[in-house]
């Protein structure tokens, strides 16, 4: 029995071609958006409505086979790495998202300065910045000259600000 079929059964979900295809798509392309998954599934099994893909994603997420990550001001991403407390790095420029292992490994991995009496079970951590490709792409400016990097104290912040200005 294929692993995906077993996973669905283990989580009490009826095995359907749609769910299998969605689960495969999520597992093949970690951190995809629902749109990406919809496109991949459509390419694989053809006749499937967008709603069916979204429903399958919701069912898989609900049952814990798929994890949904909701970064601020951007579409949710999905992944099938659900068994651990890992975090994410997101590039502000190209939106690429990658995993970063949790230094602690269990939840909550950050201690609140003041928990206000809450029973805290998770700290959601997303690291924002720029990926190596985007850093490399902007460190060579349009005239081909290397960007000034001699002011080491501010050079990490500077490119990010420039990128924002360019987009504004
Ligand atoms: Zn990037
Ligand atoms: Zn991840």
Task: Write a brief structural summary.
This protein is an alpha+beta fold. 38% of the residues lie in helices and 12% in strands.
Structure report:
- This protein is an alpha+beta fold and 168 residues long.
- It has six helices and six strands, in the order ααβααβββββαα.
- A three-stranded antiparallel sheet has the order 1-3-2. A three-stranded mixed sheet has the order 5-4-6, with no helix packed on it.
- α2 packs across α3 (34-45).
- The N and C termini lie far apart (52 Å).
- Residues 146-168 have low confidence and may be disordered.
- Bound molecules: zinc ion (2 copies).
Q: What order do the helices and strands come in, and which of them pair?
A:
Blueprint: H1 3-10, H2 17-28, E1 32-33, H3 34-45, H4 50-62, E2 67-69, E3 77-79, E4 87-91, E5 97-100, E6 126-129, H5 132-139, H6 158-167
Helix pairs in contact: 2-3, 2-4, 3-4
The chain binds zinc ion (ZN) (2 copies).
The site of one zinc ion (ZN) has 8 residues, from α5.
